[in-house]
Structure formats: C-alpha cells, structure tokens
Amino acid sequence: ISACLVGSEMCIRDSLRARNTLMIMEPWTTDGVDSSCLEQLRSCPIARLRTSTSRSLSIIRQAERAEGWHVRSVYAVSFGAVRATGLLQQLSPDWIVLQTPAPPVGASMLNLARRRAQSITSELPSYCASNGCRRAVQGAFRELLTVGMPKVATGQEVAMGILAVTTRASDNRAYLQELVRSVAQGNAETRLVRQLKVAGRQFQGFDKYSISPRAVALWADICPAYVDWSELRDAENPMVAALGRVYSGCDEDAVPATPTYGSGQHKTLLVEGVNDLVVPIEFQRRWSTQFGSKVDSMKGNEHGWQSGETSNRIERWIHDAESG
Questions:
Q1: Per-residue pLDDT tens for 265-318?
Q2: In a 3-state reduction of DSSP, which class is residue 268?
Q3: Cα(154)–Cα(131) distance, rounded to whole angstroms?
C-alpha cells in the first residue's frame, strides 16, 4: 500500500485510486488548544500537535499489522514532502511521489515569501479582461495593500486575504476576476473587500479572541524546518509581512535538524506546480538534488492541484515504477 502524507485535505489522489492507501491524519484534527495559548504563544502545545516521525511510523506499523499489508511507497503533497523524509530510512519505499512540495529543510522562509508575493503580483493581470485593466491592476493593488479601505479593512487584512484566495486560485477564479476588475478601476467594491477580510481571518487561523489548532500545528511542523522568521515578520512588503503574522508562533532560535533521506534506492517523481502561487517552482526543484537516485519530473499546475490528465500521467509513472 501507499502511505499518504499531506498538508491538508489533499488525499486521496486520483492517481492512487487503484491502490490501497493509508492516510495519516495530523494530530491537530483531534487535539485542541486553550485560551492560554492566545495569551502567550510559547505556551501553545507545540510538541503535542507536531506530526512527529515516530508517531507516523507507529501508525504505519499498526496499520500493517492490522491489515496484513506492507507500505511500499509514499505519496507526499506540499509539506508532506518534508514529513516524508523522516520516514524514508525506516520504510525503504519502492517509489515516492512529491507533488508541489514545500522546500527541503533549511530553506529561508523570507526568500520564499518574497517570491510568493512576486508570483501573486505577476499573476493578477491574468484575471483582467482588458488591456486597461492589465496596465492599472498592479499599481492599484499596491495602493490597496498599503492603505486598505477605510472603515472596511486595513492593508494588512487585505494582504492576508490575497494570500488566502490565491492559495487555491482556480477555486476562486470568478471572485478574483471580479476583485481585480474592481480594484483596477480605482474603486474597489466594499462587498469584495469584506469578503477578502473574512478569507484572510480564516487563513490566519487566530485573532485576539480565539486560535485554531490548525494554526498551532502549522507552527509545530513548519517552524523547525525553516529559517529567517524574524526577518519575515519585519518585512516591508505587506504580503510578506502578512505571511509572517500567520507564523507568529515561530521561534527564531530553532535550528533545523539535518534530515536523513534514506538509501536513495527508491524511484522518485517530482510533480512541479508551474503555476504554483504558494511554493514557487524553483523551491520545489531543490528536491531534485536531495536523493542519491535520479529524480523524474512532471509538469503540474497549481499547489496541490491535479487534473484528470495529470492524474493519469502520475498513475502511468507509478505503474512503470512498480513494473520496472
């Protein structure tokens, strides 16, 4: 069977439909946090909500004993790629698929956030229907991100909302087209900005009244893997600073552990998100140098996104990997 490690609801993939698949749920789906976490971020139950290698391996071994199966492969989406590296030495899989992966351990979150902001800004004109809109939209958005909309949303809230709706941009295409057209005309609709504010609050995961276990779980898993958290929070670019706020609980003093990538004997497929507005493609491609074996690559689209055509191509690669 395949073990599937993902950053959110992205399992089970269509390309695994012919296989038995073990989906490992993150600890935050069952454990909560209390109000003391809001009062002092360092009191949050980071360790309890971390998706540890030992916990994941224990779940896999329990499932193998209970079902009489053996995990032969790993399918990792987004940050699941980082989680998977801790399991490779123990599992020795036949193959591993990394789909639109988060960067390997040790990457600068500041550099990633800057490139993410650049990618989003560059993508905005694609939602325009006229040349006039395409010429005006980037400048108009810079102003909205700086000053916000009085009595509706601050610039920071607008920036957080933009991060939210572009994470799965294809799902929000109709909204983005309407928003971009409105902003480019220099008179953003209040209704659209309010929707952006709501989306941003959900994306951030916490406010002064409550905090989501999902937000703390992000800190627990992602903070120890990367660096430059304080620079991220102090950035001048509103979208970069907004991403820093999402990771408010990250401790700059944490030093990423050096990962172990196993024997390198497994076959590896990297499915690149060429239109990924979450993890720019150059960060995904860093995985090509992490394994001792050759890494095959395949073009995908958005972050975690998978079309029927892409699913079929991945399924064919898996079939060939198992046959060869």
A1: 789 999 999 999 999 999 999 998 887 668 899 998 888 776 778 888 999 999
A2: strand
A3: 28
Residue 118 β-bridge partners: none
Omega before 96 within 30 of 0, i.e. cis: no
- Written as six digits, the tokens of 184 are 């480019």
Closest CA to 159 of 177, 171, 147: 147
Distance CA 269, CA 294 (A): 9
Q: In what order do the strands lie in the sheet with 2-5?
A: 21-23, 2-5, 73-77, 95-99, 267-272, 295-299
Helix or strand or coil: residue 99? strand
What is the Cα–Cα distance from 24 to 141, expressed in whole angstroms? 40
Number of CB atoms found within 10 A of residue 253's CB: 7
Give Cβ neighbours of residue 279 (< 8 Å, ≥ 6 apart).
Answer: 78, 100, 101, 102, 103, 112, 116, 273, 303
Mean pLDDT of the chain: 86
Using CA atoms, how far apart are residues 166 and 171, in angstroms rounded to an integer? 9
Residues in contact with 160: Cβ distance below 8 Å, sequence separation at least 6, in sequence order: 200, 201, 203, 204, 242, 245, 246
Question: Cβ–Cβ contacts within 10 Å for residue 264, how many?
Answer: 12
Closest alpha carbon to 90 in 54, 49, 134: 54
What is this structure's pTM? 0.88
Amino acid occupying residue 167: T
Residue 113: CB partners within 8 Å, gap ≥ 6? Answer: 232, 235, 237, 239, 240, 243, 244
Contact residues for 68 (Cβ-Cβ < 8 A; gap 6+): none
